[in-house]
Write a structure and sequence with these properties.
alpha/beta; Aspartate Aminotransferase, domain 2; Aspartate Aminotransferase, domain 1; 7-stranded mixed sheet; 3-stranded antiparallel sheet; globular
Length: 375
Amino acid sequence: MSVDAVETMISVPYVDLGADPSSELARELLASVQEILTSGQFILGAAVDEFERQFAEVCGVKHAIGVGNGTEAIILTLRGLGIGAGDEVITAANSFLASASAIVMAGATPVFADVRDDLNLDPAAVEAVITERTKAILPVHLTGRPAEMGALLEIAERHGLRVIEDAAQAVGAASNGLPVGSFGAAGCFSLHPLKNLAAAGDGGVITTNDDRLADWLRQARNHGLRDRNTCDFWSVNSRLDALQAAMLTVKLRCLDKWTVARRANAAYYRERLADVVTVPIEKPEEYSVYHTFVIQAERRDELQRFLAERRIGSAVHYPIPIHLQPAAMDLGYRLGSLPVTERLAGQILSLPVHPKLNEEQLAHVVRAIRDFYGA
């Protein structure tokens, strides 16, 4: 059989979320579900407590508070820090919509700063948009690469601002040896099925070293209830299900192994594609977890179609920056407001990087991209 014929048989899915039913992981997940079903403790309880304890340990913090999803993690954190109507929160526009929508849902106004070519917030651009109404900076550790927290924390301290990390894509990432989620007043994580640590549905976690904030968040995720019959303040229902917590505790044991695999896949691409497209680099002080492996490519849309014809999945995260979304029209931004963000939106392409990829699949992706550019 010819090489071309073999290649037409190779499929590279962008994600692969299912668990092999015969695997040890699947057996452990099913056993954890059975334990919850038998216990009858479905809301909060021991399973959630144990997951929170282990997650806090991973992030090097005192507290982890499980909530309904990553968006509500940001909303509740903003509320817990007293940020709301009349306040401004600076964030990036090249993130998923939830980063900005959570700010709006908390009653505050998102203010967008431009990013650098590494896709993370440009500290200089952040400082340039601070006003007397600014109350917080919400850096996004996009793609699983840590934002430049040292510079951002210095800016925040100088201007009396809080820092809330959007670590939705970055569980396990670190900068200068410190885990993301441990730098600011709080870190907000998503456990969506597409994330590196994935629930079988929605879920989120807030990390913090602030005892007062942690106590408030535990109450706020449960309607503001002090006990079964006493409500101290109005709040939402945003509890992490015990079923999800039990499965996530099982998956936490695999997180390091999965991260190592993602990093190895990223290194494979980087070594073989750096001469034809722009690949993400990693500074010595960074430990990236590659939720996505985002290249910057000329003729991006043509390349994506070319890959699809060769049964290679890919994605664009995200083609329309938040400041240009219809929902953001009243914020006053226009095309040209964030030139780096807008330029990158036309060049970025996420390649498959999930831990189930084998070398044959990785090689197929590399050959296809090099073929497209005639390299």
